[in-house]
Design goal:
Layout (H helix, E strand, L loop, with lengths): L4 E7 L9 E4 L12 H4 L5 E7 L20 H8 L3 E9 L7 E9 L8 E6 L10 E7 L11 E3 L3 E5 L8 E8 L7 E9 L7 E2 L6 E6 L7 E9 L5 E11 L2 E2 L8 E8 L2 E9 L1 E9 L19 E7 L17 E9 L3 E5 L2 H16 L3 H16 L1
Antiparallel strand pairs: 1-2, 1-3, 4-11, 5-10, 5-12, 6-9, 6-11, 7-8, 7-10, 13-21, 14-20, 14-22, 15-16, 15-19, 15-21, 17-18, 17-20
Length: 385
Amino acid sequence: MPRYFMRYNMVDLPEGCDNLDQTFTKYHEGTLTRLSASQSEEKTLWIKPNINAPLGCTIWAASALRKISVVTQQEYLAAQKSFQNKQYTCDFLPLQKGKNHVFAKFDFKITSDDSIINLKLNCPTDKYLLDYMRMKIVDKSADLHQAGAPITLHSTYIENMSLPQNDVGYCFIIEGNMPYNTNEGQLTIDVNTSQETFDFTEAVGCEPVEYSDKYEPSKYGIIFKEKVYISPTDHTSTAINIKLLKDGVEFRDADLMKHYFFQILDNDKIILDKQGWNQINLSHYLFRCNAGLPESGEEGEEVKHNYVIQAVFDLHLWPECKTANEQSEGISWCVKVFNSDTLALCKDTDKEDKEKALKASWEVAEPGRAEKASSSRRRFQLQLK
């Protein structure tokens, strides 16, 4: 059975005034309260209820002398604490079942360590979708690529949130994965804050793009390796979702569990490494443009970027992925990207191109080398027969 509980107490009392703190633990309970002398001297008394009632509740309150008014938290904070009330909206198109989606990204700044934020997410068109959404807050000052661990909020109502001030600001993200096909709709974000200059700036993005291809078994277990091309003059923020499929069906639905790594490389160095089973989600990452950057520099200096993303099977847990067999046959991958600007992926063939260039240089240095090598291979194969 649900556990019912209510506690109410007075707030904003001046120093020396008696507090009133009452707890109710039964389904139907009442009490008679008499104000003390110090309480009676106050023109207005504010009483804050805290209620746990899974199936709803009703409060009866009456007074012999004083008028009782019920106000919302937003009304109270605006009138008594000078909080600012703001509402933001974001529209979404019909969503497909089981497809990860980024509903909105907003940038905002905190101007004081004392700033308080209350935040509520709602979906008037379909309230049940809220159960399959989550909110994240990314500290953009964490590193150059804004790849620090985000604050994940699994509730659609956040109260008394406080964030440290920084020069770069934060990114607020709403994402979800729907359990059924949906109609188009709209989300509303109600913000109640003590920061007078607070504002959400929507990060305008492009339409999400999907890339997919089949898995080709190799000795390294590389699922895919793609070059990243972005605007040469503007940084591009992105969210990336990677999932694996077997004969067109997601691994989860095909009762498969495979562990793999997702990596982002810059100039052949791994700068981000995530791991997961079947599906990996990266909620926020900033690809930096090359405008004004040198080709090379001292240790720690930012130089021109050459980004590559790749996914690799965990060979310790699944060594059979290196060869074509019944398990590895029919595997494909799908990458879905949500970008603030144009971003394109193209298969990375640098390694193969370098090998071809090396072999071509051998032929230039020693004409006929390729033909001799081909003849040697044929003789060897004949000997094996």
